[in-house]
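User: What would this chain look like folded?
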Amino acid sequence: MGKVVFEDPIHHISGKIAKKFRTIYNYAKATGLKYTSVHGERSTQPSTKELKARERFTAVAAMVRARKIDLSKIVIDQENFLAQKDSATGAKTMKAYLWRVCGQEYDEQHQG
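Assistant: Here's the prediction, encoded as structure tokens.
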């Protein structure tokens, strides 16, 4: 749902206000720009790069779901997660860690 920020009387509205209307109220914090938009059907075909990104996302998501319940990898993943968590480039959540690991595995399998 939409997010209303009140100031005397209303400063701005952001997000979808009602389910039956397609109008979205937008507020850009960086510039203060306020505008509305109506989201419709896509008018262009997805590019090859976008289709590959979708395919990778779907595959990595399935790998993460499978790895989360794989009893042979849970303990090792937890130990590795804790070892890298406090480093500067470490993943801060277990889910982010699994996405990184599974993404790297996917990329190694699908090079080229």
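The longest strand covers residues 12-16. If you want, I can go into more detail on any region.
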